[in-house]
Amino acid sequence: MHSAIAQRYSKALMSAALDMNVREPVDRTISLLSNLFDDSPALTGYLERVSKYPEAAEQITENLVESLDAPDLFARFLLLITQRKRLGMLESIVRSYEEERKREAGILTVNIYSSRPLEEQEKKKIIERLEHHTGGKLETIWQVDKSILGGIVIKIGDDVINGSLKHRLNLLQRYLLQE
Question: Which residues pair with 114 in a beta bridge?
Fold first, then answer.
């Protein structure tokens, strides 16, 4: 989940892009930035540090706009967050923008944690049941978490379906301790 500030910035950018009829170029720029953050995990920390130095931050902003061939609206947006010393929030703003875009398209992001790598047939069965349950398209992120001991944990937005063995054991322990 992204900060409320990042969400406000991303929604403002999306709204302005729609109003100015430049949504497609802004979406493309956001996708390029997303890939850049994926490829460079240290970039956010760097942007946070450099945002404390206005001249350096503005120079980086100009270079970023030029290398991304960003539309004018995005260039002005980037300059605004740079001047407000929020350049370190850029990744969070980008991720929030992407989530909103997926939400508009009816795509839900689902994180699925299992104690072991699941086979394709198991994944397919889980996806089918979730699509039936949610009634929408899903983007699934599969992760192995040995700490859950067995079963799976499914996270859709703020909702968590905990079918892990660890959770069941904790429930049993609480029940036994109450008696």
Answer: 144, 152
Residue 71 to residue 29: CA distance in whole angstroms = 8
Which residues make Cβ contacts (< 8 Å) with residue 138, sequence separation at least 6? Answer: 107, 108, 109, 110, 127, 130, 131
Exposure string of 115-151, with b = 16+ CB inside 10 Å and e = fewer, is beebeeeeeeebeeebeeeeeeebeeeeeeeeebeee
Mean pLDDT in residue range 50-71 = 93
What pLDDT was estimated at residue 1?
Answer: 53
Tokens, residue 43: 């970039």
pLDDT tens-digit readout, 72-92: 999 999 999 999 999 999 999
Q: Give yes or no for a contact between 30 and 17, defined as CB atoms under 8 angstroms apart.
A: no
Inform me whether the pLDDT recorded for 168 exceeds 90. Answer: no
C-alpha triplet 143, 167, 103: angle, nearest 5°: 45
Domains in the chain, CATH or no CATH each: 4-103 (1.10.520), 107-178 (3.40.30)
The pTM (predicted TM-score) of the whole model is: 0.71
Q: Which residues contact 50 (CB under 8 A, 6 or more apart)?
A: 56, 57, 60, 87
